Amino acid sequence: MGRRLLLPHTRRLMLFLRPMRYSASATATATAGSLRDPLHVCVVGSGPAGFYTAEKMLKGREGVRVDIIDRLPTPFGLVRSGVAPDHPETKIVVNQFSRVAANPRCSFFGNVTLGSDLSLSELRKTYDVVVLAYGAESDRSFGIPGEDLRGIHSAREFVWWYNGHPDMCNLAPDLTNTDSAVVLGQGNVALDVARILLRCTTELASTDIADYALDALRSSTIRKVYLVGRRGPVQAACTAKELREILGNYKMCLKNVNVYIKEADLATSPADKEEMRNSRIKRRVYELLSKAATVHQENNDNDRKELHFVFFRKPTKFLPSEDGSTVGAMELEKTLLKDDGATGKQVAVGTGEFEELKCGIVLKSIGYKSLPIEGLSFDKYRGVVPNLRGRVLSSESETATVEPGLYVVGWLKRGPTGIVATNLHCAEETVDSILEDDRKGLFTDPSGPKREGGRRAEEQA
Amino acid sequence: RRRGRRPAAGSHRFREGSEAVGSAAAMLSRISQLGARGSCARPELKSILFSTATTSSHHDEGGDDKEKISVTFVNKDGTEKTISVPVGMSMLEAAHENDIELEGACEGSLACSTCHVIVMDVKDYNKLEDPTDEENDMLDLAFGLTETSRLGCQVIAKPELDGVRLALPAATRNFAVDGFVPKPH
Q1: What are A295-327's pLDDT values in tens digits?
Q2: Partner residue opposite B180 with nearest CB, options A16, A165, A388
Q3: PROSITE patterns, per this entry (chain B) (predicted)?
Q4: CB A83 within 8 Å of CB A75
Q5: CA dihedral A68, A72, A75, A77 (to 10 degrees)
Q6: H-helix or E-strand spanning residue A195
Q7: Minimum CA–CA partner of A162 in chain B
Q8: Cβ contact (<8 Å) for A112 and B112?
Q9: Which of A142-156, A236-250, A444-458 has the highest average model confidence (pLDDT)?
Q10: What is the DSSP code string of A301-332?
Q11: Fewest Cβ atoms nearer than 10 Å: which of A114, A146, A288, B184?
């Protein structure tokens, strides 16, 4: 494979980046055997994983320069594009990240895409350490008939749309062809999209929701949202704060919405009770759902919208509308929980009983998926980069070796779950691995291929 | 604090007038209005953070007019730092004023769990007001949760807490793939 011709702007970028490796400073010269000074680190991705990693690298080592790159012109990843607009307190963390970027030893480069503007090998030749923090920008799918009908979107796309992400500003979901929306999944992202669909638009108007989304929601005809989960209330992935917001009656909660939960769905088996015994989160979620099921819903006048929790149903087909142009209904199969002997978890198995649920829009919120890139090992089954405490491995097999100077953090490392703060501890682990390798002298190789490759790239530029 | 950034060299393909620019600028300006470090976004919390305990009836005109208590933070590596905290200040604020590495992602708005501290003496834990539902919701998600865990932004200094010891939770958990042993390189 010949050496790729670098695009003009990338050449300029490499020139800009290159001088930093040879910049004069009091402690700059690395002699053979001593630690690299300064250590040049590139963090790919500027969400919480990337920024916490940058922060800890800056704190962890005196002589270090961190460049954070992102394919978007603006930083902060899902804090900007994933957190719901009516959750502004969750975005306060950008203040901390901004302070990191303002550090003279740190720089942010937007509009730089790994895989097209730069290849992974070029990056590894330019920097002593590369940390991949680019998250999970794709979705899990069901693989069932009708999944490509119009009107079916992943929650990620819908969330990016109302948060103004440049990739989705033209999504134009049709919110006017139906009164019923189905959300598949019962995690916090599912609750977010349900809440945004049901929230009074005057409340949304004072948030940073994208203007075009606010306009679309103002003319939305959706009055009913169904949150459909394969398993029961004990297995629902949402957490107490988000549930309280939907069920409660305090200032910022969801108003004018009747919430429907079937009492029959709340029956718990011994396995359910065991799950709750082992998890404080599940206990409190179950308590909230139980309380909500007993609330008598007033007769629904036209003013109130509806939110239905549908448990023990798994989608088997998406059915087209009458004119065949969009989705018109879903076929759902009733499920039962069975113990999966291997993992000890309870899994949903179909019972052969089916029912139909009419809807004009479906939002799939069943999980994100990371994207592989050329030159990077990837565990297709788990959707993560194989790694050992953040050190990238050459494959997921037992005979894999550690890739020198290459690390991973965040969703790309752990899988797409967790909150902003989960990345704090994830970043600590990866940075610990980097600093350990640094102390072992793994980044000093003045005569190695790295510097040679760097000089060649500079000549070509 | 500088908010506008001059475009970095890599961003000269910046799309003018794109949707992202408008909403990003709007978001950043709204976010910075939400609260600087140390203050919080919810008005009802402001009164909790800055209230003073009314235990003393005489006032020192010349000296500190706020009573102070002694608080010891125990770091993840076991090292300790003892600081003096005015009554009415939260432990999160006190930690930041004394360069103690207690995270505070949401700056005291009860929207995260990063200021999680462990009250080392259960007697001190029992002197605290019960956590609200909102605090418990955040504690649910805290790393290394214990029976005497609280959010640092919700623990307010009062005279009865003089001498309290707060531990920062041990953060690193072993994420290693089970049983994996890498080849020597």
Answers
A1: 766 666 667 899 999 999 999 999 999 999 899
A2: A388
A3: 2FE2S_FER_2 (PS51085), ADX (PS00814)
A4: no
A5: -100
A6: helix A188-198
A7: B23
A8: no
A9: A142-156
A10: -TT-EEEEEE-SEEEEEEEE-TTSSBEEEEEE
A11: B184
**Residue numbers of the domain that contains B157:** 72-167
What are the pLDDT digits (tens) for A416-441? 999 999 999 999 999 999 999 999 99
Write down the pLDDT at residue A250.
79
Q: What's the pLDDT at A60?
A: 94
Q: Mark yes or no for CB contact A208/B10 under 8 Å.
A: no
Amino acid at A360: G
Query: Looking at the partner chain, which of B114, B172, B175 has a beta carbon nearest the beta carbon of A421?
Result: B114
Dig out the tokens for B103 from the structure: 């995270």
Report whether A6 contacts A15 (CB < 8 A): no
Is residue B42 a contact partner of residue B109, using CB atoms and an 8 Å limit?
yes
Phi-psi region of A20 (alpha: psi -120 to 50; beta: other; left: phi over 0): alpha
Contact B112 A90 (CB under 8 A): yes
CATH code (residue B99): 3.10.20.30
CB distance A195 to A305 below 8 Å: no
Cα-based distances in Å from B4 to A209, B12, B28? 21, 16, 10
For B137, which of A90, A241, A388 is closest by C-beta distance?
Answer: A241
- Number of domains comprising chain B: 1
Span A328-371, pLDDT tens digits: 999 999 999 999 877 778 999 999 999 999 999 999 999 999 99
Q: Which CATH architecture has domain A145-367?
A: 3-Layer(bba) Sandwich (3.50)
Q: Which pLDDT tens digit goes with each residue over A105-148?
A: 999 999 999 999 999 999 999 999 999 999 999 999 999 999 99
This prediction has a pTM of: 0.83
Q: Which of A29-38, A121-130, B172-181 has the lowest mean pLDDT?
A: B172-181
CA torsion, ordered A353, A358, A361, A362, to nearest 10 deg: -10
**In chain A, where the domains are located:** 40-137+370-440, 145-367
**A40-137+370-440: CATH architecture:** 3-Layer(aba) Sandwich (3.40)
Angstrom distance (rounded) from CA B124 to CA A420: 30
ipTM of the modeled complex? 0.86
Best residue of A9, A17, A89, A206 to probe chain B, by most B CBs closer than 10 Å: A89
Given a cut of 60, is residue B63 above it in pLDDT? Answer: no
